Amino acid sequence: MEGKETVEKARERIIETIAQNIHLYGLTPSAGRQFGMMYFHNEPLTLDDMTEELGMSKTSMSTSVRALADLKLVERAWKRGVRKDLYQVKDDWYQSFIDLFSIKWRRSISLHLVAVRKSLSELEKLQAEEGLDEQLKETLAIDIEKLEYMRDYFEWLDRLVDAFEDHDIFNLVPPKNYLKQK
Amino acid sequence: MEGKETVEKARERIIETIAQNIHLYGLTPSAGRQFGMMYFHNEPLTLDDMTEELGMSKTSMSTSVRALADLKLVERAWKRGVRKDLYQVKDDWYQSFIDLFSIKWRRSISLHLVAVRKSLSELEKLQAEEGLDEQLKETLAIDIEKLEYMRDYFEWLDRLVDAFEDHDIFNLVPPKNYLKQK
DNA sequence: TTGTTTGTACAGTAAAAACTGTACAAACTT
DNA sequence: AAGTTTGTACAGTTTTTACTGTACAAACAA
């Protein structure tokens, strides 16, 4: 086999694997393919470059590169003389993994905590009232306990994300050859 | 407002929040609603109970409860005299979070590592050949470096999942009031 | 055995998401 | 200023996913 072909095949295998697994980041296989292609492309790319490389519409390239950028998987780049927007893959994948949690999970945790605290306070207020039905009292006690459990759990998750963001996780699980970027 | 209504509203808020965020587990809002409903239902439920509660087809209940069970969010339960399958929400959410990684992320990590190792060994083999084009040599060196980076990263992720599974993560981020279930 | 109940496979339909092409606003060029 | 270039909003289309109803195999009951 020709050397160029071998390299191409080796790349394609990786790109396709990324495409098939990027759903864990909430992205589509196309966005994964885009990311993979960009990873092996050693220069920043414009939207038109991506259209060229992947044979998809510029609109698609625009929306998915934005999705990739929102998750901090790619970033804007600058090159003198080039007017078009340029994008490249972020080179710190460890940080990108952490960013996933900062962005997607943190938001979810926060929404849960808001809802739980609101429901909890409503039920506690109701519980304090007098002359409640026995059946209702029991339901209240059970529901409050469940909500407290949820609150503790999401507060734990929140601290877990803190531990990622603060890089404390690297003490527990040290990366090999990890050099903090800039 | 009537007490019963207050409780119902408090529950609905939580259930809807879960439904809107369960996509992080790769599940649909419907499955999230099902999970939420089951959480506040203090008895194990049959598929027919769920159909009743959620007004959806039994087929849907069957497929989504299976999806929930695959992620270890719900489990089968037994009650004497009941012939139908019974399901209930698992009561250890910390463990469920860990299971998410064991199940979804571990699989993805493994697929990536297989692909990376295969591509890496192909390129290394090619690199060992004689009389290679200068341009190709350079490409090879760059791609090999990228693949090595990926390998290190996914091996780190793998160890991270180990740290979850082994509960070492609880040393770094201790849960409040966490009692290991059985 | 025959009759019933229960879960799910499968095919069809409804709903949602991904993708494309057009159109245009904003930024840049001359 | 007028003329280009560039990214994206939006409407329409295609593709995918979620959901339903029927049909049936496996388990159980009589």
Protein architecture, described:
The structure is a homodimer of 182-residue chains. With 182 residues, chain A is mostly helical. Chain A is 68% helix and 4% strand. The first copy, chain A, has a two-stranded antiparallel ribbon with strand order 1-2. In chain A, β1 (74-77) and β2 form a beta hairpin. In chain A, α1 runs antiparallel to α2 and α3 (47-54) crosses α4. Chain A binds a DNA duplex (30 and 30 nucleotides) through α4.
State the main characteristics.
DNA-binding, 7 helices, two-stranded antiparallel sheet, mainly alpha, homodimer, 182 residues
Outline of this structure?
Chain A has 182 residues and is mainly alpha-helical. Chain A has 7 helices and 2 strands.
Structural class of the secondary elements of chain A? mainly alpha
Number of strands of chain A: 2
Number of distinct helices of chain A: 7
Q: Determine the mean pLDDT of chain A.
A: 96
Strand order of the largest sheet of chain A: 1-2
Task: Give the N-terminus to C-terminus distance of chain A in angstroms.
Answer: 41 Å
- Give the chain pair forming the largest contact, with residue counts: A-B, 66 and 66 residues
Strand percent estimate of chain A: under 5%
- This entry's quaternary arrangement is homodimer
Order of helical and strand elements of chain A: HHHHEEHHH
Name the poorly predicted regions of chain A: none
Which term fits the overall shape of chain A?
A: elongated
Helix share bin of chain A: 55-70%
Rg over alpha carbons of chain A: 24 Å
Largest sheet of chain A: 2 strands, antiparallel
